[in-house]
Amino acid sequence: MRKVTIKDIAKAVGVSYSTVSRSLSKSPEISLETREKVLAACREYGYTANYVAKSMVMGKTEIIGLIVSSMDNPFMSELSDYIERYAREKGYNLMVCTTSHNEKQEDEVFRLLVGRQVDGIIFFPSFSTSYDNLKPFIDGVPTVFMSENLRDLPESYIAVDNREGTRLGTEYLHRLNHRKILYFGRRKHSTTHQLRAQGYMDACRELGMEPSFMDSDHPFSSIQKGYALARELFARPLAYTAVAAATDSLAIGMLQAAGEAGVRIPEDLSLLGFDDIIYAGLPVINLTTIRQPKEAMATTAVDMLLDRINNPMTAYSHIILAPSLVERGSCQRLSCQNN
Amino acid sequence: MRKVTIKDIAKAVGVSYSTVSRSLSKSPEISLETREKVLAACREYGYTANYVAKSMVMGKTEIIGLIVSSMDNPFMSELSDYIERYAREKGYNLMVCTTSHNEKQEDEVFRLLVGRQVDGIIFFPSFSTSYDNLKPFIDGVPTVFMSENLRDLPESYIAVDNREGTRLGTEYLHRLNHRKILYFGRRKHSTTHQLRAQGYMDACRELGMEPSFMDSDHPFSSIQKGYALARELFARPLAYTAVAAATDSLAIGMLQAAGEAGVRIPEDLSLLGFDDIIYAGLPVINLTTIRQPKEAMATTAVDMLLDRINNPMTAYSHIILAPSLVERGSCQRLSCQNN
DNA sequence: CTGAAAGCGCTAACAG
DNA sequence: CTGTTAGCGCTTTCAG
């Protein structure tokens, strides 16, 4: 069951196959009559252009590679969804690769995508470690990073302003009269998370509060991790009136631990998340959080990438999007006496 | 910045480029010595095989196309994640297209994928309508459907046993002494959902209960829809002790409406979902539900597809996986007096 | 064991 | 306006 090619329909119509090619593209230099005939034949025989062959000669595939840790993860899947839609709107298809937060696999799929001749790569790195081994490849294909993790690399990246996000959140909590705020789940080996911790510290300093941390050693956030960590926290008497969690997942884990420990949120403890994953807005979760503008991040990433693809000479650009506060039900104003 | 090709390294080593090609593939007919030299040169010059060219001559791309309604949707994103991982393990990459539950777009991306010369397509159809327009294309590329929606098409499909799922759930509720069970969110224009409704009816008949439905006109499930529908339900006095929801999303929407209406779950009303999306297990949601075995569905779908790809002559196969009950906290045993 | 040559389906000069 | 030709990077006979 061979696929019908340009040659088949050339023979059918009785023209050369370059004429067919021209009829199919919007070449002006073709008579209306022949074009009609060609188009008719294409329909009759069910011709579909072969993009592989086309890519071969055009030197571009119109495919964008996307590297993410995993897609079953509300933040990533939302982002991926926006990216796919927007890219397709722009005439590009998406080839998705997951890495399971595995550094070696990040390498592997990057190479894979390069071999596939993708026109560009949107890369969501899980680590802040050096990408030395990837460097020669990155030079070979337009890449935009979606994260501040690699901000020191001479590459384009887009991210939310993590530092500003936690600062915003901390100020909000302060405005609600909280003075003892715990930063929950600091991760030291991620630039993104260092920045979040930094924003919290900055706000604390400005507002005259003592920063206080509960660290997480885990390489990525999960509800489970938040749960485990929060259990530790609740095992001792509560020394805080509010917590700023490093991510929504962590916050949701704390929600469960709180329920079990009899800590009421927000009555006994205000809880602030980060990311605004779709779970956060769920009725029974109802988490107040710092929102990352996912759709804007996605479309901007694609636009940046296409820009690099079309103008290879342009300088690297770094775009930092503003986070925003989404007020829901997990934070409560403290009456002054409680202070 | 041209990419280095097989020819470049042929010149560098001083052999013909077919020798390079042979060294790179596991051809036995090559001296260890030359192969070493070639491999060394490849490393030195940073050669990466061009899969587009390779695809061209091999007549296959080792790419699988995946068509889903959207990826920001817990069920789909989990499934997609499993599919990507397993496919890559098998040497295939994934090209993902979303359709936004739009029939015209299903067509469009299918054609697109065919043009991209994908070796096969995993298709999650949103509709039960005829796929007449797609028929000629489907014949041209191995396709497996993930859904019972197209069970009448002479094509391979894999799905969970929807009918058995609701039957299982209804029997469970009956075992908990519930006799007045509402089926919530029946969708009439989807075969999948007709089967779920059927399973519920079958169980009702067997167990001597009167089936009762609340229909949804919406083409797909969402928390919002469940919420809206449940508000209607709770506006009148409650005539049921349990509800079997058509999907987890619908059930979660009901959870919110219940909270607002002062209906306690499970004390006042037992609630059963369907799908076991990742939200369902969330601490505060804790939904008892019928689980679709997502990982098995994903790997089986890939295996079925690869099978069709490698043996084009094999007959269509239909695989129906067994659902299972996941007991969590949203269903309660009724004491007999309450009956 | 290795080289030469054909060809995958298509586009893009270059001629007419 | 249309046909001829070369060639994209690679695999694979077919000869040595």
Commentary on this structure:
The structure is a homodimer of 339-residue chains. With 339 residues, the first copy, chain A, is of the alpha/beta class. Chain A has three domains: 6-49, 434 Repressor (Amino-terminal Domain); 60-159 and 294-321, Response regulator (Rossmann fold), CATH 3.40.50; 162-292 and 325-338, Response regulator (Rossmann fold). Chain A has twelve helices and twelve strands. The first copy, chain A, has helices spanning 6-13, 17-24, 32-45, 51-58, 74-89, 103-115, 135-140, 162-175, 191-207, 223-235, 248-261, 294-310, and strands at 63-68, 93-98, 120-123, 143-146, 156-160, 181-186, 213-215, 242-245, 270-275, 288-291, 318-321, 324-326. In chain A, the strands form two sheets. A six-stranded parallel sheet of chain A has the order 2-1-3-4-5-11, sandwiched between helices. In chain A, strands 7-6-8-9-10-12 form a six-stranded mixed sheet, sandwiched between helices. In chain A, helix 1 crosses helix 3 and helix 10 (223-235) packs across helix 11. The structure holds a DNA duplex (16 and 16 nucleotides).
